[in-house]
Amino acid sequence: MDPLSTALKIAASGLAAQSDRLRVVSENLANAQSTGNTPGADPYRRKTITFAAEVDRATGGTMVDVMKIDRDNSDFPVEFMPGHEAADANGYVKVPNVNALIEMADMTEANRSYEANLQVVKQARDLISMTIDLMRQQS
């Protein structure tokens, strides 16, 4: 395979991985206030995403792939909300282990990585177009 096609494939794998990462971050932010419905029930548990590098046999390029989407097993914070339906006998409610600041930082990083991969796709596409134009001029 030619180097430009390899670059396109690598960038496409990065786009897909960062898209999945953005989806996970969005789910975490959307559920940052999702508590249980009964006393002592567990709230929403933050999701995490893990990437892996894989060598593509056809191109020899190293692609990025989502290895797994898992749950963050850190403890749930508790807040004093005596009137809440999920409050225990002491008035405490388990809240999701989602930190909005961390999620926003992850979202910013994923967005920038997505944009960088998109620029690679645009540059490779432009180079392919220029190559085709050069070939047309020579014939």
TrEMBL record:
Q: Does the keyword Translocase apply?
A: no
Quaternary assembly: The basal body constitutes a major portion of the flagellar organelle and consists of four rings (L,P,S, and M) mounted on a central rod. The rod consists of about 26 subunits of FlgG in the distal portion, and FlgB, FlgC and FlgF are thought to build up the proximal portion of the rod with about 6 subunits each.
What is the protein named? Flagellar basal-body rod protein FlgC
One biological-process term from Gene Ontology? Answer: bacterial-type flagellum-dependent swarming motility
- Keywords recorded for this protein, A-Z: Bacterial flagellum, Cell projection, Cilium, Flagellum
Q: Which Pfam family is one of this chain's hits?
A: Flg_bb_rod
A Gene Ontology cellular component where this protein is annotated is: bacterial-type flagellum basal body, rod
Name the family the entry cites: Belongs to the flagella basal body rod proteins family.
The record's listing under PANTHER family reads:
FLAGELLAR BASAL-BODY ROD PROTEIN FLGC, FLAGELLAR PROTEIN
Recite the lineage of the species.
Bacteria, Pseudomonadati, Pseudomonadota, Alphaproteobacteria, Hyphomicrobiales
This protein's record includes keyword Disulfide bond: no
Which InterPro entries is this protein grouped with?
Flag_bb_rod_N, Flg_bb/hook_C_dom, FlgC
Where in the cell does this protein reside?
Bacterial flagellum basal body
Q: Which residues form the Flagellar basal body rod protein N-terminal domain?
A: 8-35
Q: Which residues form the Flagellar basal-body/hook protein C-terminal domain?
A: 90-133
Which superkingdom heads the taxonomic lineage of this protein's source? Bacteria
